[in-house]
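Translate structure to sequence.
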């Protein structure tokens, strides 16, 4: 495993991290979840990403149990707050009340006294930014949270937060967690240049486009049994990735991966890691073999010709519009 700084902070994270959205507490059974976490640890992954909302709070519990007994100092545990975790009007968003309550639930479920990174899972248009940032800062002072970051915020929203933190003396954001893959490059135009200037690192999600970039989904054919596209919850998030045009072009990447002695999953993960503003690529997995496959992307270098070839193959199916970075217009 290779390690990178999380943005300009002193914290080191594994280049490849393991995340448990859709899988733990939902798509996969507890023993498979533990086997994946074990494989991640064996392969040198030290960084684990979850969220209060995943599997209706069950994902944090599964991760907490899977990591039980592992030396806490050898782990970086990341979680998030924003999406609804209960029926009440305050069980969501980034108000001081919900942040303070949600972190306590996360710590209890994860079985830890602190998380290494606490992330605002989206921008909350119904809470003044000062309120959220002061609550985050308080959590840092209380020692419940070591670093603070955001997820899927636009460049403008990150900029506003940095200005407020500067003028109020609050802890600075060190990271953003956006979707990023060969197919989804919307952060490149605005978020990455700002983050480079301001010292935020990207912890990118769905680097394998939820499995699509493994090439296992074939155009015009039903998805393979047991894959995310056959899972009732998981498939809801995959529609835009499953067009025949995307799947056909992805098949054409196979010789590129083979020329480099890489699997398709490794090529996909290696691709996001070529961007120096990426601190870590969070991979998901339903089986330990997938974790062992994906981690081999750490440290892989892709030359300019290969990067160009990938662009030519994917052509118009690559999404680049920065306006696609959006948070809900009102609280969910
Ligand atoms: N901040 C946010 O808003 C946000 C949103 C989404 C995700 N995330 C984070 O990012 C993490 C990763 O997201 P993701 O799970 O969508 O990432 P991903 O790595 O793109 O997709 C993971 C899925 O692809 C399939 N897969 C992975 N490796 C494979 C391999 N080597 N061969 C064949 N299939 C393989 C598996 O599903 P099947 O076996 O079921 O096909 C696996 O569960 C999440 O767990 C979460 O921590 C954050």
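Result:
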């Amino acid at each position: 495993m290779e390690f990178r700084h999380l943005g300009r902070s002193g914290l080191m994270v594994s280049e490849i991290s393991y995340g448990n959205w859709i899988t733990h507490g939902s798509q996969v059974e507890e023993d498979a979840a533990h086997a994946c976490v074990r494989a991640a640890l064996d392969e040198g992954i030290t960084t684990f990403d979850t969220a209060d909302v995943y599997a209706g709070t069950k994902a944090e519990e599964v991760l907490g149990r899977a990591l039980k007994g592992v030396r806490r100092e050898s782990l970086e545990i990341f979680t998030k707050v924003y999406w609804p975790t209960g029926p009440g009007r305050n069980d969501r968003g980034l108000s001081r009340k919900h942040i303070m309550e949600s972190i306590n639930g996360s710590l209890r479920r994860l079985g830890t006294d602190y998380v290494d990174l606490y992330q605002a899972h989206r921008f909350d248009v119904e809470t003044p930014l000062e309120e959220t940032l002061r609550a985050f800062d308080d959590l840092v002072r209380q020692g419940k949270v070591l670093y603070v970051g955001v997820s899927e915020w636009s460049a403008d929203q990150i900029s506003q937060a940095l200005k407020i933190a500067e003028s109020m003396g609050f802890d600075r954001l060190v990271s953003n967690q956006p979707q990023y893959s060969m197919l989804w490059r919307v952060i490149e135009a605005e978020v990455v240049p700002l983050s480079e200037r301001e010292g935020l690192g990207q912890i990118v999600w769905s680097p394998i486009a939820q499995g699509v970039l493994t090439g296992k989904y074939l155009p015009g054919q039903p998805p393979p049994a047991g894959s995310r596209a056959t899972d009732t919850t998981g498939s809801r998030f995959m529609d835009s990735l499953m067009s025949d045009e995307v799947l056909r072009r992805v098949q054409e990447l196979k010789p590129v991966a083979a020329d480099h002695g890489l699997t398709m999953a490794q090529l996909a993960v290696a691709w996001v890691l070529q961007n120096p503003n990426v601190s870590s690529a969070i991979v998901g997995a339903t089986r330990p073999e997938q974790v062992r496959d994906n981690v081999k992307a750490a440290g892989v270098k892709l030359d300019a010709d290969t990067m160009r070839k990938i662009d030519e193959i994917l052509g118009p199916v690559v999404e680049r519009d920065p306006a696609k970075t959006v948070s809900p217009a009102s609280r969910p």
